[in-house]
Write a structure and sequence with these properties.
CATH architecture of the largest domain: 5 Propeller
Number of domains: 2
Strand content: 25-35%
Helix content: 10-25%
CATH class of the largest domain: Mainly Beta
CATH topology of the largest domain: Tachylectin-2, Chain A
Distance between the termini: 58 Å
């Protein structure tokens, strides 16, 4: 190449000017360059000093081979000159005592700077792609330490491929990240220690950054915004070379996977992986091609103390050409119990990304820090299914009901009592043999009831006066059973919780009286636990809550759903406007340690501030509605890091859908929703079914990967005298129970 020297000097001058403009304003005005050193097949070498060992810049020397390949003159000028810039900041002691621990970041950022220079001058100039020559080495060994390195003259050049880290960190912060990392180099600090400090200086968490980095490396694509919002960090690259150039030499053009396995429903597999400091591992599992599946992984670290420094991200993807597409479907993060699950649609793949977030300064020590993680994977039916145990429990109770026993009811809500028994609260309730309902006079129909469950045993609590329906010696209305709560009124069920605020273990249960119009009022009852666990009859008068209206004359009916979260009890209510079956929702809160019915302690949601935080007021009249609406029977739960409003919609229609509306706050429910289940009952069947009242029942299911939701099936049919034909259908007012996988509670928009 006749003009090789001129070409090199010209590109060196461009780089000198550019690096100065990037902030590398180091003293000095020249650097020595020598051609002709071919020892050990020298590809190019920069020394921090020549004859003047203590001169930080004037002594820097670039040593090149006699005849570099023609495409390397520009590349070498950019790469080697950046080493000159780096040497200004590096303590000489570190170079002498632990060169690999410094050299990995030197080579990584020199390749990064070279790539940036080409983009700034001529992106297609000769040698433009050399910077990525070691990307395959880096991406084929993700489990190794992030700063794994070798002595510069050894053949294995993984440190050159670490330019990917410099590029990712630059994209997450700004173009000065690399500069700050060199400027911050102290006398005793190694680059990895400095990188950690600089990341935190940008108000980022190292754990999150590394999770985003290794997720981005698995994808090698542009960002997936929904997953990025979930993690709080990007999982992709803006650099177009990420999807085209970097993986070109990788097997299948993809980073290495520790596990690749197909698991059909009912299948399982196990094994172990090893991960060093700052590294990651990818485990891929492909599910059924025809059915929805749930992939569950259990992980166990070699040392339990390692859990805080490990992150586990499980993602499902559609599959294209035997590889995951760039757009993830669902994801979850390990919550701390060693188990993580995700739903796979037919033909999808699930990938567990294991990230080790601790960083060790010395490259040798980091590489030697490998730890073992054992894993067990299982694949099961992932769809929502009937809860056979509960459905059989209540259908058996209905079929065998005596004259004082529950045989049907709607609006069911349940509360687990201390000691393990469960109280089931119903609104409108049938007692007695269902086959005797049709005349309308041979069984009792009461406005609410309680059923106490102990194992498979059910005991009905009424207001007394049972089993007298055919006693002609009594006055007509005295023949029928009494309602236990608010006899003579119409009190239907809200939510309940066990409260020990007053030193005793009571169940505080909310009710509402009325049909949902402006005359409806909220109330509560405080049941001593011993009454629920021992009695078969009771007569309780509810205590009215204070009248409260944010939009007179329509009252807010508080206590429809209760949620304890981070020291607070959130109390949800609905507005009794009488105009729609789906009501505006409202929210109050109080400390979870106080009596939940003490309204003097409540604070009411009154909107959000400019930053999205909630505003609270002591005035109920100043309450503001939430964005979402619902039927009056609903639940709010906290699951998978989000709040979920679970309800049936459209109200009272069959079949409708049971849906979950996600939010990142207890008040932030919007228009996004996840469809959980479509009831099989239809409006046009012979029973003219009406479906309503979806509620979550906590701690019922022994399978922690599923939660129980109930809904009520009634009828819209009437006879010629306008009397409801519910009396004619033995299974009317029968609660239905379904098991919904926790992985179904997923939304890409929050």
């Amino acid at each position: 190449m006749p003009d090789a020297i001129d070409t090199f000097v010209g590109e060196l001058s461009k780089a000198w000017t550019a690096y100065k403009s990037w902030g590398y304003d180091i003293p000095g005005s020249y650097v020595s360059v020598y051609f002709g050193f071919d020892e050990n097949d020298n590809p190019g070498l920069t020394l921090p000093f020549g004859d003047h060992i203590f001169d930080q810049l004037e002594g820097s020397v670039i040593i090149l081979p006699s005849a570099p390949a023609s495409d390397r003159y520009r590349y070498l000028a950019y790469h080697e000159l950046f080493h000159v810039m780096q040497y200004y900041f590096i303590p000489k002691l570190n170079l002498i005592t632990d060169l690999p621990s410094v050299n990995w970041w030197m080579e990584a950022t020199a390749e990064w700077a070279t790539h940036r220079m080409y983009n700034q001058t001529d992106p297609s100039a000769s040698g433009w792609d050399i910077y990525s020559s070691a990307s395959d080495i880096f991406l084929s060994e993700p489990q190794r330490a992030l700063n794994s390195s070798t002595w510069p003259w050894e053949a294995h050049k993984r440190q050159y491929g670490a330019f990917i880290l410099a590029q990712y960190l630059t994209e997450q912060t700004d173009s000065n990240f690399v500069l700050h990392s060199w400027e911050s180099m102290g006398l005793t600090q190694l680059p990895m220690e400095v990188i950690k400090d600089v990341i935190e200086g940008y108000n980022l968490e190292v754990r999150n950054v590394l999770t985003g980095f290794w997720a981005a490396n698995y994808r090698l694509a542009v960002d997936a915004l929904d997953l990025s919002r979930f993690l709080g960090i990007s999982v992709g690259y803006r650099d177009p070379h990420a999807s085209t150039l970097w993986p070109v030499k990788l097997a299948g053009n993809r980073p290495a996977r520790a596990v690749e396995q197909t698991l059909l429903q009912g299948g399982s597999a196990n094994g172990s992986i090893r991960v060093s400091a700052g590294g990651a591992s990818y485990l891929e599992f492909t599910g059924s091609s025809t059915d929805q599946s749930m992939l569950t992984l259990q992980v166990q670290e070699q040392d339990p103390h390692l859990r805080p420094m490990l992150d586990y991200l499980l993602v499902s993807w559609p599959v294209s050409s035997s590889r995951p597409s760039g757009t993830p479907s669902r994801w979850s993060r390990l919550a701390g119990d060693g188990e993580i699950s995700v739903m796979l649609d037919p033909g999808e793949m699930g990938t567990l990304i294991v990230i080790r977030s601790d960083l060790i300064g010395g490259s040798g020590a980091a590489d030697d820090s490998s730890v073992r993680i054992d894993w067990n994977a299982s694949m099961v039916d992932g769809g929502t299914r009937p809860n056979s145990a509960l459905n059989n429990l209540w259908s058996t109770q209905e079929a065998a009901a005596g004259c004082a026993d529950w045989s049907g009811g709607d609006g069911v809500q349940s509360t687990l009592l201390p000691g393990g028994k469960r109280a089931w609260f119903f609104s409108d309730t049938f007692l007695g043999d269902p086959s005797k309902r049709s005349p309308g006079t041979e069984v009792s129909y009461i406005r609410n009831s309680i059923v106490l469950q102990g194992g498979s045993s059910l005991r009905t609590i009424t207001g007394g006066s049972t089993c007298g329906e055919n006693d002609s010696g009594k006055d007509f209305w005295d023949r029928y059973a009494k309602t236990p709560v608010g006899e003579g009124g119409q009190y239907w069920t809200g939510d309940a919780k066990v409260s020990i605020a007053n030193g005793t273990s009571d169940v505080v249960k909310f009710y509402y009286e009325g049909i949902g119009d402006e005359n409806t009022r909220a109330a509560y009852v405080r049941f001593p636990q011993t009454d629920l666990t021992t009695r078969t009859t009771m007569s309780v008068s509810p205590t009215k809550l204070q009248d409260c209206s944010a939009r007179p004359p329509y009252p807010i009916i508080w206590g429809a759903s209760l949620l304890d979260h981070e020291g607070m009890t959130y109390i949800y209510g609905w507005e009794a406007d009488g105009t729609s079956a789906e009501k505006p929702l409202y929210l109050a809160r109080t400390a979870s340690t106080v009596d939940p019915a003490d309204q003097s302690q409540w604070r009411y949601f009154s909107g959000t501030a400019a930053d999205g935080s909630a505003q609270w007021t002591s005035s109920c009249a100043a309450s503001k509605p939430l964005q979402s609406k619902s039927e009056v029977d609903f639940s709010v739960i906290h699951l998978n890091g989000r709040f979920w409003l679970v309800h049936h919609t459209p109200a009272s229609e069959a079949p409708g859908k049971i849906v979950a509306v996600p939010a990142t706050t207890a008040w932030g429910f919007g228009s996004d929703q996840v469809d959980l289940f479509t009831p099989p009952e239809t409006k046009t069947n012979p029973n003219h079914s009406s479906v309503y009242g979806a509620r979550v029942h906590a701690d019922v299911n022994s399978d922690k990967g599923r939660i129980v939701i109930s809904y009520t099936v009634s009828t819209s049919a009437i006879n010629l005298t306008c009397w409801t034909r519910g009396y004619y259908f033995p299974d009317n007012y029968q609660p239905r129970f379904i098991d919904v996988p926790t992985t179904a509670f997923f939304s890409a928009k929050t």
